[in-house]
Q: What sequence folds into this?
C-alpha cells in the first residue's frame, strides 16, 4: 500500500496529549540508534519521523487509532536486539518504543506462570523466577538485552529449545492491541482449550505486523536443584552432529541444551572474552547442559554422556570450568566474529534435525567451491544453524556477486531438506526478497490475506516479511 501521510505538527501534538509531552521526540532530536537494530547497523539507516514511548496498553491503542485516521505507519520496537530489521521504521512514521512497559506484574508459584509487560528483559524474568525456585525456559542468546515482547514477536528459540521448546511454547495468554487500535486477550491459562483459532500461535512470530503485545502470561517450570554444563570436543562437524542425533532422544541424559560451535569460532570466542572457556579445543565443540535432582543422578548422566561421546570419537568430555563465563562467551559470539571477520553475512537457517548432517556436508562443499570461509554457532539440538559466511580467498570486488549466488544455493539446499530461511531471527526486511522466491505462493497468499484482514490500512510495521500484493 502507498499513500502514507507525513507526521505533521498536529499529529505530534495529539501524540503528546496521549502519552505526555516528555515521551515524544520528533525530527533531528531522535537518537540514531532508533534507525537500525542489532543486525542492520551497517545498512542504510531509517529513522522515524517521531518517536513515541507509551506507558500502557490504552496509550498504545490510542496511538494506533490515530495512525489509522491519519494513515501514518507505526513500527513497534522492543530491545532493538533483532537481527533482521523487524523493528526498523523503513517508511518513517511513528516508532513505538515499548521500553516503558517493563513491569513483572505477577509470578504465581502454585500456578507456575508469570504475567509480564513486553519491555521486561528476558534475563530479569529468569532471575526473578529463579529466586522463587522457578525456571522461565525461554533463553535467546541475547537474553541480557532482549525483551519478552521481541522474543514473542520473532518466536525466539534459544538454547533450551531442545527440551522446553521455543518462545511460543512458553506463552499461555497475550493481551494484544490490534492494528486498528482495539484491545483484546487471546489464549488462556487453561491446560486444554479447543475454542476457535489458536491466535497465540499466530501472533508469536508475526514480527509485530498483526498486533502489538502489551502483556504476556508465560509458563514457568520447577527449577532443578542441579544444572550442569559440559564441553564435548569432537574431531569434526560430522562427528559432533552424529552425537547430537544420539543425545537429543536419549532419555538417560535428557539434555536441555545441545549447542554446536566449530573450533575456529570457539577460539575466536576465547580470544574475544580473554578466557579459555572451551579449554582451547583441538576440535569442534558441543556444549551439553542437563538437569539433575541430586549428585547421584548427576553422576549417572555424566557417565552416560561420556559413554555416548566416546562412541562418536570424542576427544574429550569436560565439565565447564566456569558456566557463567561459558555462556557469556556464547552470547557474544557475534561480536567475537565481527572483530575478526568484519566483512561477512549472517544466516539463521533451520533444517530438520535428522537431516542436519546432510546440510552441514553441503555447506562445507559450497564453502570450498566458492573459496569462502564460515563460522558456526548453532542450536544443533533443534536444527537451527547460526552461520557467518565470509569472503575467505575471494577478492573484495567479487564478493557481493559471488555471495549472492552462494546464498541462493545454500537456501535451495535448506528448502530441499524441508528447512526454512529463519529459525528464530525472523524475516524482517533483510530476508524479505529471498522469502518471496522460496515460499510457496499459496502460503504467501494466505499470509497476505491474514494481514489484510487484521490491518486493512497496512499501518502496522509495513515493509516486513512481505509487501502487499
A:
Amino acid at each position: 500500500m502507498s499513500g502514507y501521510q507525513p507526521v505533521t505538527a498536529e499529529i505530534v501534538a495529539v501524540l503528546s496529549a496521549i502519552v505526555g509531552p516528555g515521551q515524544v521526540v520528533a525530527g533531528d532530536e531522535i537518537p540514531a540508534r532508533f534507525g537500525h537494530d542489532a543486525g542492520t547497523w551497517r545498512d542504510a539507516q531509517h529513522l522515524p519521523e517521531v518517536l513515541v514511548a507509551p506507558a500502557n496498553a490504552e496509550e498504545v491503542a490510542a496511538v494506533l487509532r490515530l495512525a489509522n485516521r491519519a494513515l501514518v505507519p507505526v513500527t513497534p520496537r522492543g530491545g532493538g536486539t533483532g537481527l533482521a530489521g523487524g523493528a526498523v521504521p523503513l517508511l518513517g512514521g511513528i516508532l513505538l518504543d515499548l521500553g516503558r512497559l517493563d513491569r513483572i506484574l505477577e509470578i504465581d508459584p502454585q500456578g507456575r506462570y508469570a504475567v509480564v509487560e513486553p519491555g521486561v528483559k528476558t534475563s530479569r524474568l529468569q532471575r526473578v523466577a529463579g529466586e522463587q525456585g522457578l525456571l522461565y525456559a525461554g533463553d535467546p542468546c541475547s537474553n541480557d538485552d532482549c525483551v519478552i515482547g521481541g522474543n514473542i514477536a520473532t518466536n525466539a528459540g534459544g538454547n533450551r529449545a531442545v527440551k522446553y521448546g521455543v518462545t511460543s511454547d512458553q506463552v499461555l495468554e497475550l493481551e494484544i492491541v490490534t492494528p486498528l487500535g482495539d484491545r483484546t486477550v487471546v489464549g488462556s491459562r487453561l491446560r486444554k482449550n479447543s475454542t476457535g483459532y489458536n491466535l497465540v500461535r499466530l501472533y508469536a512470530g508475526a514480527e509485530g505486523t498483526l498486533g502489538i503485545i502489551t502483556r504476556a502470561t508465560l509458563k514457568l517450570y520447577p527449577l532443578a536443584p542441579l544444572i550442569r554444563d559440559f564441553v564435548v570436543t569432537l574431531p569434526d562437524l560430522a562427528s559432533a552432529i552424529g552425537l547430537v542425533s544420539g543425545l537429543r532422544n536419549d532419555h538417560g541424559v535428557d539434555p536441555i541444551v545441545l549447542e554446536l560451535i566449530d573450533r575456529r569460532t570457539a577460539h575466536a570466542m576465547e580470544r574475544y572474552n580473554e578466557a579459555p572457556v572451551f579449554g582451547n579445543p583441538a576440535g569442534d565443540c558441543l556444549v551439553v547442559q542437563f538437569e539433575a535432582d541430586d549428585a547421584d543422578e548427576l553422576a549417572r548422566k555424566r557417565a552416560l554422556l561420556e559413554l555416548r561421546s566416546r562412541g562418536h570419537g570424542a576427544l574429550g568430555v569436560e565439565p565447564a570450568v566456569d558456566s557463567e563465563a561459558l555462556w557469556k562467551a556464547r552470547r557474544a559470539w557475534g561480536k567475537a566474529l565481527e572483530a575478526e571477520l568484519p566483512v561477512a553475512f549472517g544466516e539463521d537457517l533451520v533444517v530438520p534435525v535428522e537431516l542436519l548432517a546432510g546440510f552441514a556436508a553441503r555447506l562445507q562443499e559450497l564453502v570450498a567451491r566458492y573459496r569462502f570461509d564460515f563460522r558456526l554457532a548453532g542450536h544443533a539440538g533443534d536444527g537451527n544453524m547460526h552461520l557467518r559466511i565470509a569472503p575467505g580467498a575471494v577478492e573484495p570486488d567479487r564478493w557481493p556477486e559471488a555471495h549472492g549466488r552462494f546464498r541462493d544455493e545454500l537456501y535451495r539446499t535448506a528448502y530441499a531438506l524441508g528447512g526454512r530461511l529463519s529459525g528464530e531471527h525472523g524475516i524482517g526486511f533483510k530476508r524479505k526478497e529471498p522469502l518471496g522466491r522460496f515460499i510457496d505462493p499459496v502460503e504467501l497468499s494466505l499470509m497476505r490475506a491474514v494481514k489484510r484482514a487484521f490491518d486493512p490500512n497496512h499501518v502496522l510495521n509495513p515493509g516486513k516479511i512481505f509487501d502487499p500484493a
In short: The chain has four domains: 9-100, 104-222, 226-332, 341-426.
